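Here is the promised in-class demo. Please do not try to memorize the tokens; focus on the logic of going from shape to residues.
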């Protein structure tokens, strides 16, 4: 059996998503020729086509995809083959309704949409394993195939599961975790509101309750359980495909969705991780009108950054090429001329070396007749196809960037326990959401790029040590091993920054009876003597830097920890107003070769402007280019060469200055001094290192 491998593209590659089952066979050859002519050398197929291979239970027919794959081989087109489990067929759900997922009240989701299954029904696992094995066994050696996709978007559409099969599997998960009901009752604090369990059968996945009352500790385990179920289902398919695939063919899935530990999934099951990028959502009708300053489509950089933390050399399985919507949803307008390229380059800038556009041609039937592809129903050449061809030229001109690493000024630390805690605790959610969004905004506006690092059970000092600064905004949940790792990081010279609300819960989400920030106190030397969230009815709270004039106000929004420095820590700033005026707002403590900062509120683009400067991490490429905040800059680096991406998300031209000599890779022209990017324009420079 060949084992999990780490797959990396060797040169920039372009693809598209194609559905042979949606079109007359006579069209296949012409479609493939037109794709190849545009530079598309990979198609992803088959991920919803269970019926084409198993039209009735146990009857397998391989001819349809044999014909398509043979044609691909003949034309020189590469194929990523998707397993079809995202859409169980009608014969299956009719005969085995227990495979269906349910809403929280237990009502089953019926046939007619997609992802209507649950991961835990034994019969669905069996039938999924069988179709995957049949497909892998039959198509696995086909020369046109270069990779395999597992399912489609695991945990998209539904990321919560409430079927009977899930309750049964939840009990098994809990029995393995806790061993005894006493241990479970203790961990879940069931003494509160008389929730004590006396038999495993009394335990269910969460069900509807009155007035939003939940057991948060049960919910935390429930999200861990969903993640575990997703990983097991994905792992089962990967293990089968690995037995049959050709050496070198990769196994991937397209993410990134909630309630799954994507990092563990990548490590345990996949050779490479792909993402589906649809920045046009930012302009859709469902857009939050309050989010006027939320950077719109630039926000996709934040998601892509997260994808890079899962897999540094990822690909895009579905890159937006047209307007998005279903017959029941209007999601996002068509990319304006230039935006298709801009969004694809945004993905490349963040680390993608493979860009596959969704989809070759818009479907003429079904829910997704408005999820537009490159070509429209009329099948004529159009501006989108012309732009794909132009993008291809640009992509090939930056082949040297393939495999290059993104340069970061700091790391943002996250972990799944805290992420899932935000789903059960709105007090946690409020600070976490605000800080993450604002750290991203500050990074964009001040051209200060970051990596995201997830702390996992097997995290090591080397995962952090290369970053001069790490920001762990609100580690509400903290345990000994993470605290020890952070201490080691600081001790060897790192700078750790934590925000308010740190360290007051244990791994079960129970509050710890110790001074905050709990286990982190021995690193920060800060003591939270009082705390409160800010009332919208009161004046905004601010802090004043020690020794500075009153004009140096630092905003301390949303929530305040009122601090006292202990053990060699000192106050960098004190609160300037409210009933805690004069008390420490930001503390700093030197420890070993590094230091730890406790920032007593959430982060905002304004207070990060000060913090980035104070930490000496602001605008690391200022010597290379002077760029206004309306443009995004990204640096990738490989074999001593540096590549600067400059992306214009604005509908108007924007100027900037190259301070060093650079080469515009699209044209190979030398550039220096004042430059102008047109509306939605992009540029990639090789920057001279002297
Ligand atoms: C993606 C999905 C595609 C397609 C697209 C439009 O999430 O993977 O299959 O459905 O959305 O809805």
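The designed amino acids, position by position:
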């Amino acid at each position: 059996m060949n084992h999990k491998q780490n797959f990396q593209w060797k040169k920039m590659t372009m693809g598209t998503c194609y559905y042979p089952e949606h079109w007359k066979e006579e069209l296949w050859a012409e479609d493939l020729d037109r794709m190849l002519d545009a530079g598309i050398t990979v198609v992803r197929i088959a991920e919803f086509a269970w019926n084409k291979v198993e039209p009735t239970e146990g009857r397998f027919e391989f001819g349809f995809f044999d014909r398509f794959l043979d044609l691909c081989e003949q034309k020189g087109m590469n194929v990523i083959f998707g397993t079809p489990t995202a859409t169980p067929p009608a014969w299956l759900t009719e005969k085995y309704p227990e495979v269906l997922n349910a809403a929280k009240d237990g009502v089953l989701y019926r046939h007619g949409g997609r992802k209507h299954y649950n991961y835990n029904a034994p019969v669905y696992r069996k039938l999924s394993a069988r179709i995957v094995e049949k497909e892998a066994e039959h198509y696995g050696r086909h020369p046109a195939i270069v990779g395999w996709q597992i399912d489609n978007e695991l945990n998209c559409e539904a990321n919560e599961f409430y079927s009977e099969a899930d309750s049964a599997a939840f009990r098994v998960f809990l029995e393995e975790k806790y061993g005894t009901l006493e241990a479970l009752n203790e961990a879940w604090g069931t003494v509160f509101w008389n929730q004590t369990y006396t038999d495993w059968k009394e335990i269910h996945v969460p069900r509807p309750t009155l007035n939003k009352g939940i057991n948060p500790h049960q919910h935390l385990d429930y999200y861990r359980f969903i993640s575990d179920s997703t990983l097991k289902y994905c792992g089962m398919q990967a293990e089968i495909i690995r037995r049959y695939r050709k050496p070198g063919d990769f196994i991937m899935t397209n993410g990134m969705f909630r309630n799954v530990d994507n990092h563990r999934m990548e490590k345990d099951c996949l050779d490479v991780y792909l993402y589906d990028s649809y920045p046009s959502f930012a302009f859709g009708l469902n857009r939050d009108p309050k989010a006027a300053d939320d950077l719109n489509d630039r926000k996709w950089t934040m998601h892509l950054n997260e994808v890079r933390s899962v897999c540094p050399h990822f690909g895009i399985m579905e890159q937006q090429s047209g307007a998005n919507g279903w017959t029941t949803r209007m999601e996002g307008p068509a990319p304006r001329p230039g935006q298709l390229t801009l969004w694809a380059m945004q993905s490349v800038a963040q680390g993608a070396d493979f860009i596959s556009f969704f989809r070759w041609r818009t479907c003429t039937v079904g829910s997704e007749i408005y999820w537009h592809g490159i070509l429209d129903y009329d099948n004529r050449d159009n501006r989108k196809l012309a732009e794909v061809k132009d993008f291809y030229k640009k992509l090939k001109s930056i082949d040297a960037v393939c495999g290059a690493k993104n340069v970061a000024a700091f790391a943002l630390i996250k972990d799944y326990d805290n992420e899932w805690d935000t789903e059960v605790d709105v007090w946690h959610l409020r600070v976490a959401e605000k800080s993450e969004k604002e750290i991203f905004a500050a990074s964009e506006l001040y051209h200060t790029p970051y990596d995201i690092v997830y702390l996992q059970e097997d995290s090591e000092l080397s995962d952090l040590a290369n970053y001069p600064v790490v920001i762990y905004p609100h580690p509400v949940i903290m345990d000994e091993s993470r605290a020890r790792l952070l201490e080691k990081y600081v001790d060897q010279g790192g700078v750790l920054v934590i925000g308010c609300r740190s360290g007051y819960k244990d791994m079960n989400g129970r509050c710890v009876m110790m001074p905050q920030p709990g286990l982190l106190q021995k690193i920060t030397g800060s003591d939270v003597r009082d705390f409160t969230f800010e009332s919208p009815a009161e004046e905004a709270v601010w802090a004043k830097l020690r020794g500075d004039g009153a004009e140096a106000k630092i905003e301390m929004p949303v929530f305040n920890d009122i601090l006292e420095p202990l053990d060699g820590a000192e106050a960098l700033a004190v609160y300037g107003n409210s009933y805690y005026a004069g008390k420490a707002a930001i503390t700093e403590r030197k420890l070993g070769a590094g230091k730890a900062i406790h920032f007593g509120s959430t982060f905002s683009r304004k207070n990060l402007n000060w913090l980035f400067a104070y930490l000496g991490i602001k605008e690391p490429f200022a010597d290379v280019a002077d760029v206004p905040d309306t443009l995004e800059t990204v640096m990738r680096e490989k074999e001593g060469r540096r590549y600067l991406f400059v992306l214009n998300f604005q509908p108007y031209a924007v100027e900037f200055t190259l301070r060093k000599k650079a080469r515009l890779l699209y044209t190979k022209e030398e550039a220096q001094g004042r430059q102008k990017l047109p509306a939605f324009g992009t540029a990639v420079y090789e920057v001279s290192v002297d």
